[in-house]
Design brief:
With about 200 residues, this protein is an alpha+beta fold. About 20% of the residues lie in helices and about 30% in strands. It has 5 helices and 13 strands. The protein has a 6-stranded mixed β-sheet with strand order 3-6-8-9-10-11. A 3-stranded mixed β-sheet has the order 5-4-7, with no helix packed on it. The chain has a two-stranded antiparallel ribbon with strand order 1-2. It is globular and about 50 Å long. The C terminus is likely disordered.
């Protein structure tokens, strides 16, 4: 049996479909990829981060958007919905609809088992090609851990924090994320202790 390859969509076709759709889809290389719904902990983490950033950015020239703001990742042709987006200065949009941001300053992704490899790998590689991007934050769900990638003099460096008493400094937007605030109301699964020899 042979399979018929579906014709690739143009960016304009994707946007027309996406803007009329009841659900969200990423887009890359002519294909749309439906996004699954998020669970409680994921939604709480996103809400906590957006709330913390919004409070700290109220009197700054920066804006914070939750996960409904689509981002076009420059030359890569990737359209995606980060879990949180911050833009400082004048936001640049693809068109007058103002639903596709071109110049994010900081992006945040909450990891899950199904997305961690993608977020750390391909998506991270695409994000780093954005000239406007200064910082990229990855947040674990199963344990308190925040990874912060920062651009400095053309190179990316990694800092991470793994204790609820720790915090990370987002230099590009002059904010601090305390892990205790990020993980507020998050319940972690208890580690199951394996019995030792002879038990």
């Amino acid at each position: 049996m042979s399979t018929v390859r579906q014709p690739k969509l143009t960016e304009a076709e994707y946007l027309a479909i996406e803007r009329a759709a009841p659900t969200k889809s990423d887009f890359y290389d002519g294909e749309m990829f439906a996004m699954a719904g998020a669970r409680r902990n994921h939604n709480l983490l996103v809400a906590n981060v957006v709330g913390e950033l919004r409070e700290q950015l109220r009197k700054s020239p920066c804006e914070v958007y939750p996960s409904d703001m689509r981002v076009r990742v420059g030359k890569t042709g990737l359209y995606t919905y980060p879990d949180a987006v911050v833009v400082c200065g004048e936001p640049e949009f693809l068109d007058d609809t103002q639903d596709t941001l071109l110049n994010p300053t900081l992006l945040v992704e909450v990891l899950s088992e199904s997305t961690a490899t993608y977020d750390r790998g391909f998506k991270s590689s695409c994000y780093r090609q954005l000239k406007s991007l200064k910082e990229y934050v990855l947040i674990e769900q199963e344990q308190p851990r925040v990874e912060l990638y920062q651009r400095s003099r053309g190179k990316w460096t990694l800092q991470d924090a793994g204790e609820l008493t720790a915090s990370v400094t987002l230099a590009s937007i002059r904010c601090t994320l305390k892990l205790a605030a990020v993980y507020e109301k998050i319940g972690f699964k208890k580690q199951i202790q394996q019995p030792g020899p002879g038990r």
